[in-house]
Specification:
The structure holds 2 protein chains of 2 kinds. Helices cover about 70% and strands about 5% of the residues of chain A. Chain A has helices spanning about 15-30, 35-55, 55-60, 95-110, 120-140, 140-150, 155-165, 170-195, 200-205, 210-230, 240-245, 250-275, 275-300, 305-325, 330-360, 375-390, 395-410, 415-440, 465-485, 485-505, 515-534; strands spanning about 5-10, 70-80, 85-90. A 3-stranded mixed β-sheet of chain A has the order 1-2-3. Chain A starts with 6 loop residues before the first strand and ends with a helix. Residues about 445-455 and about 510-515 of chain A have low confidence and may be disordered. By secondary structure, chain B is mainly alpha-helical. Chain B has a domain at about 280-495. Chain B is built from 18 helices and 3 strands. Chain B has helices at about 10-25, 30-55, 80-105, 110-130, 135-155, 160-190, 210-225, 235-240, 245-280, 285-305, 310-330, 330-365, 375, 380-395, 400-415, 415-445, 465-480, 485-495, and strands at about 5, 60-70, 70-80. Chain B has a 3-stranded mixed β-sheet with strand order 1-2-3. In chain B, helix 4 (about 110-130) runs antiparallel to helix 5, helix 6 runs antiparallel to helix 7 and helix 9 (about 245-280) packs parallel to helix 11 (about 310-330). The longest helix of chain B has about 35 residues, at about 245-280. The mean pLDDT of chain B is about 90. The chains are: A mainly alpha, B mainly alpha. The interface between A and B is medium-sized, with 34 and 33 residues.
Chain lengths: ~525, ~500
């Protein structure tokens, strides 16, 4: 079959991708049978751990020398529409799948005491979420991709709306509307692609010689969806609200995995399917990324709420990701993908740390959580590690990603490189500010220890065993990637090279003539005018 | 001689880190804790010493710990310049270890365990910087020094301490992110590697066709990026950091922290850019005149300070620029004079800070105006102060003279009258702000308020923990003025190679 030339069919003894996708779903259904809360938590943890173990062969058996989609499964699904059930991973998505399976056990663990009501529903929603997220990363079929993409929306909405904070209604609806808005354009693009080519198969769609104007439309429709998801300035405003109100697990999922789908979408749809349009739009997206980096960092600097600060820092970090993607060179892309993984680990860690302190002091304000250094030293040590990682301290994971993106930026243009530097400075500024206030004293310069006690005036307790396990594992990843990122870079190497080849090969046949570009933009402009008139 | 590839080079920076761990776990038992600190220091120094013979014979040690990206390595490479700095710093850590006991116990300071832990880690990171074999490794340890000295500067946890510490970290982190990071990226882009050049100081790592504009840009970024070197206008963190306890000012802000900055600057000039590149782009002479401004201006500011530690801080800023001035001359004598000053200044300046601390613990005095007649109450301390002052001024036979001798030679090799004038003027200024302290101590009037002094440690045995180390450093700064051969040989290996 012609589709198989893009795939390396799964040779493991079990259908690994389908299994890791379905195990959480089955687990979610089974969890409905359990009534005891403790058993529910243990069951949820077990399901995520089993998924993690099942996903490990994806790394150990991964073939580093091919850009084809590995561990693939191909089944007839809906022959009339030439629709197949087809899943597979390449060097980019395999890392994100692994990130998902690694992060999910933490989401259960960090909710152990945090979630006080509806534990059964919480476990159910979280496990369904895992299925949807893994589904997005392994789908090689636009319909399947879209189904999972939309399926993710509801559990995330519920996580915020049911277990969220004071303004959960506002935050959850804002999240829902923003993401849905983007998704609609994505759906339009998928349908348009099918009408034009008669296939839903993603690798095949990448090989189509679309005209420039058509590419432009596809690019813009997809980019809108992904730019909202990642999120990119000026479409980022849903993120701080969602982060602040979401429970810890929700924030971790949101920051660690959901945001990555935007970046993944750019790499899977925009770049390879519309290479000429990508080249044409590159300067604008680089500019938007730089604005995101600086704007996100600048806003993070002024926050008094720890979660909000980390949320805005995510905008800045994701700016580095989109910057790396749209540099369209080897280092930029690798740096961007690595930065997605890094951000998942580091920011996941930071949100877990915030959840821990919230459980103790019932406040997320920096002022209420100051001068912790003397009281809970273990907590503060790990907080320090994740903060330093977030500001790209050398030796931690983010440094490698940021360095590669900056390297790519300087290679593209010295000006772009220097414009990205303020982002790095701001990251150091807001993270050190946070660290300084939480460890040493609050903004007034007085350390008032009494305010940091919990509601009953008890002394704060340092991390318990469960919490230490969580942060230690994440800290190991921080230093491991920081000192030895080569395995990850090797995994993505072939796919990144292939992607760059697709862009250079696809960018030339459909020539980027100013006239045609102008034409496409004019068309869009006219359309906008009509909409405005209407 | 050959390069030995051995993981032994890791030991020197690992030992202080290990010491820090031991200190952390024996926080409840002060005697054990402080023994670890001293034992760790002695072992670290011995480990450096064991590497010395091979270096003196012209060899080097090398070890690659990790590769982040092809060309970006965590790599250690020990040569003459590195061992000069590592040896000085680790030796002085031993003395500072004793001194800390006297100071911290004498003043009954809080959070002493934290203090000793951060102290040890900072020294360990400085060892790592001294042993660094690539720009990335240097940057890594440079940043670790910044982070772990923050708690030391903020030690008192009062408004003044926080303000000083904030300024400290803002200056250091801002410059390293804003200047060093892009400099590293640009250098990596041009050279394809961040490893240093290991074949002498003439050739840098830049390929022949390197873009000259980018070379100049990255050089300037490096020069300002290593703000720990205290070159004006990025010097202001140093006086603010003087809010720290005096042992911190002594070891860290006279030896470890500032020397990491100066060492890094010299290392980048010699092992990344190389003498030929700097000469052909005229960067050396521009740097020399640029730091001359710091030398003179900092000395003038020092004249106006009556707080002893503040005066010492500005003196440090001025003296650090001597080192860079010497290297920037790019002549054999100039480089020798600059590099040997890393050790010379360390011994002399730590003596001065030790004295300032001893005076404070014994009498509670910080201001020079109140020090009238102090020479008769603390004769040994003030004599040591006098010796170290002579060295700062550059009077023979102190070690400061050796520096000035070579720097003057270097200026003459360059046939630069301007730099000679700078050296002369700064020596006069040095005399201008050190001699009055000495005169005041021995010939000044006893202040009337003296009856109600706060500290009263001068007759207790604890003061010996402070006086003995400062006497030793004072004597050494004389001895290495008379027998400068060891240090000169080490540098000769480096410069001559």
């Amino acid at each position: 079959m012609h589709m198989e030339k893009y795939l390396i069919l799964n040779t493991l003894s079990y259908p690994v991708l389908s299994l890791i996708m379905l195990v959480p779903l089955v687990g979610a259904l089974l969890s409905l049978l359990i009534k005891n809360e403790t058993w529910l938590k243990i069951f949820g943890l077990l399901v995520t751990l089993v998924t993690l173990v099942l996903s490990l062969p994806l790394y150990t058996c991964f073939d580093l020398h091919t850009a084809k989609y590995q561990f693939a499964e191909l089944r007839h699904w809906f022959p009339l529409l030439k629709l197949h059930y087809v899943v597979g991973v390449d060097g980019i998505s395999v890392l994100l799948v692994l990130l998902t399976t690694i992060i999910m056990p933490f989401c259960i663990l960090c909710s152990w005491n945090y979630i006080k009501k509806r534990m059964g529903e919480f476990i159910f929603v979280t496990l369904v979420m895992e299925t949807a997220m893994i589904g997005v990363f392994i789908s090689l079929n636009t319909v399947l991709f879209y189904i999972f993409w939309e399926a993710m929306l509801i559990p995330m909405f519920l996580l915020i709306a049911v277990w969220g904070g004071a303004r959960k209604d506002y935050a959850s609806i804002k999240f829902f509307l923003y993401t849905l808005c983007g998704s609609i354009f994505l759906l339009v693009a998928i349908v348009a692609l099918y009408i034009k080519t008669g296939t839903f198969f993603i690798p095949e769609l990448m090989d189509q010689p679309f005209s420039f104007a058509y590419q432009m439309w596809i690019f813009l429709a997809c980019a809108l969806a992904f730019a909202i998801k990642i999120p990119m300035y000026p479409l980022h405003t849903w993120l701080p609200a969602a982060h602040v109100e979401a429970p810890t697990a929700g924030s971790v999922i949101l920051a660690s995995i959901l945001l990555k789908m935007g970046g993944y979408g750019f790499l899977r749809f925009c770049l390879p399917m519309a290479p000429a349009a990508t080249l044409y739009c590159m300067p604008y997206f680089i500019a938007l990324s730089l604005i995101s980096i600086i704007f996100g960092g600048y806003l993070a600097l002024g926050q008094t709420d720890i979660k909000k600060l980390i949320a805005y820092s995510s905008v800045g970090h994701m700016g580095f990701v989109t910057l790396g993607i749209f540099l369209l060179n080897d280092q930029g892309l690798k740096g961007a993908i690595l930065q997605m993984i890094n951000h998942g680990i580091t920011t996941g860690g930071l949100f877990i740390m915030v959840g821990m302190i919230y459980e103790r002091t019932h406040s997320r304000e920096i002022a209420d959580n100051s001068a912790l250094g003397m009281m809970i030293p273990i907590y503060v040590t790990f907080l320090g590690i994740f903060c330093l990682s977030s500001l790209a301290f050398p030796g931690t994971n983010s440094f490698v990603g940021e360095f590669l993106v900056l390297f790519g930026a300087f290679k593209k243009s010295v000006v772009v490189g220097f414009l990205a530097i303020p982002g790095a400075i701001l990251a150091a500024a807001y993270m050190l500010r946070l660290l300084q206030r939480m460890v040493w004293h609050d903004s007034d310069g007085h350390a008032h220890h009494d305010s940091a006690g919990d509601d009953h005036g008890h002394k704060l307790t340092d991390l318990c065993f469960r919490e230490i396990v969580m942060v230690v594992v994440l800290a190991v990843f921080v230093f491991w990637i920081g000192l030895y990122p080569t395995p990850l870079l090797k995994v993505m190497d072939a796919s990144v090279t292939h992607l760059l080849h697709q862009i250079t090969a696809g960018g030339t046949p459909a020539p980027v003539t100013p006239h045609e570009g102008h034409h496409a933009l004019l068309e869009i402009g006219n359309w906008l005018k009509q909409v405005a008139a209407f | 001689m050959d390069t030995i590839i051995t993981s032994k080079v890791l030991l020197t920076s690992a030992l202080p880190m290990l010491t820090a761990l031991l200190i952390m776990f024996s926080g409840k038992r002060p005697n054990l804790r402080e023994s670890w600190s001293v034992i760790g220091a002695i072992l670290t120094f011995l480990s450096v010493l064991s590497l010395l013979p091979h270096i003196l014979a012209g060899g080097s040690y090398e070890f690659t710990l990790a590769t982040l990206y092809p060309g970006v390595n965590i790599k250690f490479h020990l040569d003459g310049l590195g061992i000069l700095f590592a040896g000085t710093a680790s030796f002085l850590w031993i003395l500072a270890g004793f001194y800390c006991i006297g100071y911290m116990r004498g003043l009954d300071e809080h959070a002493q365990t934290r203090f000793y832990v951060c102290y040890a880690v900072a020294v360990g990171a400085a060892m790592g910087a001294a042993f660094a074999g690539s720009l990335f490794t240097l940057y890594l340890f440079y940043e670790i020094v910044s982070i772990f000295t923050y708690p030391l500067v903020a030690h008192h946890q009062d408004a003044e301490g926080y303000a000083g510490a904030k300024k400290y970290i803002v200056y250091l982190m801002f410059t390293s992110k804003a200047f060093l990071l892009p400099a590293m990226v640009i250098i990596f882009m041009q050279c394809g590697t961040l490893d240093f050049c290991y074949t002498g100081i003439l050739n840098g790592i830049f390929p022949a066709g390197a873009n000259h504009t980018l070379v100049v840009v990255s050089y300037l970024l490096c020069l300002f990026g290593f703000a720990k070197a205290g070159i004006m206008p990025l010097h202001n963190w140093l006086p603010s950091a003087m809010v720290a306890p005096t042992p911190v000012s002594a070891l860290l802000h006279a030896v470890v922290v500032v020397k990491v900055g100066v060492f890094s600057t010299c290392r980048v000039m010699l092992s990344v850019f190389g003498v030929q590149m700097l000469q052909s782009l005229n960067l050396g002479i521009i740097t020399a005149y640029f730091v001359s401004f710091t030398i003179i201006t900092a000395s003038i500011i020092a004249l106006s300070k009556s707080n002893l530690k503040a005066r010492l801080a500005y003196s440090t800023i001025s003296q650090l620029s001597y080192i860079i001035l010497g290297v920037a001359m790019l002549t054999p004598s100039g480089i020798t004079g600059g590099l040997v000053h890393i050790a010379n200044h360390a011994f002399s300046k730590i003596t001065l800070f030790f004295c300032a601390g001893a005076i404070f613990v014994a009498t509670g005095k910080k201001d020079i105006k109140e020090m009238g007649g102090l020479g008769y109450r603390m004769p040994l301390t003030m004599i040591a102060f006098g010796i170290a002052s002579l060295s700062m001024i550059g009077v023979p036979p102190s070690c400061g003279f050796v520096t000035k001798w070579f720097l003057a030679l270097g200026a003459m090799e360059l046939k630069s009258v301007g730099l000679l004038v700078v050296l002369l003027a700064s020596s006069l200024l040095n005399a201008g702000y050190f001699v009055p302290v000495f005169l005041k101590a021995f010939f000044g009037k006893v202040a009337p308020a003296d009856a109600e002094m706060t500290g009263s440690l001068e007759n207790k045995p604890l003061i010996l923990f402070m006086v003995v180390p400062l006497l030793i450093t004072a004597i050494i700064s004389m001895v290495i003025g008379i027998y400068p051969d060891l240090f000169l040989n080490i540098i000769h290996v480096m410069v001559g190679a």
